[in-house]
Amino acid sequence: MSAVDTTRDGAVATVTLTRPDKLNALDRATRWELIGALRAVAADTGVRAVVLTGTGRAFCVGQDLAAVEELEHADETVAGSYNPIAQAIAGMPKPVVAAVNGLAVGAGFGLALACDQRLASDTASFSCAFSKVGLVPDTAASWYLVRELGYTRAFRLAATGRTVRAAEALDLGLLDEVLPADALADRAHELARELASGPALALALTKRQFRAVCEVSFEAALAIEARHQGEAAAHPDHVEGRTAFAEKRAPRWG
């Protein structure tokens, strides 16, 4: 039985973790299914935005601790099948919207953080719970938490593994919206459709640019902006956008 389901609604693809009885925990088979699904929607030119969500009470609770053999060489497990998940989301040339329907724990927290927009139900909660089982943050959780919270707040979340409710996560800037549970899926798809209707190349370049500027000098960031602007301006979407502006109409993106 598949642990990951992919559906299409026009230009929006939804990737759903479907192990509700295991709180969408990630064993090796599930991780590779998820990597495959993310790479497939990334490569599909008909998909212009992606929603990532879970089923049941959890979004994802991270590593399936019942698969103890996977932690015997944890460095290889992380490098081989957790890092590629974070890289697939971050490197995808289209927006990814997290629809956090419930618990997001450990690597599941990392999955949500890796997305470009993060929506959650008002019953969702988050925990960087690695320390509770004597492990350290992975799936890019350390990268995002330090950059978005600063060192001391990120360290406290990781060191204590405490639960952060959706309302607090919104206050911390880790979420973009919190919604009633029964409104989450519709709002996530509404946002994804809005993003999918935008200029695909410009959004892809903006995503790449925003993710790159945390890593480079001010001068290098300016150079990236100039290079990407050259690519965007040479694309037919720019001509259409400029024409639509002059004609006072909505653009018809390619």
Automatic annotation (TrEMBL):
Gene3D superfamilies named in the record: 2-enoyl-CoA Hydratase, Chain A, domain 1 (3.90.226.10), Lyase 2-enoyl-coa Hydratase, Chain A, domain 2 (1.10.12.10)
Pfam name, any one: ECH_1
CDD domains from the UniProt entry: crotonase-like
GO function terms (MF aspect): catalytic activity
Protein family: Belongs to the enoyl-CoA hydratase/isomerase family.
Name of the protein in question: Enoyl-CoA hydratase
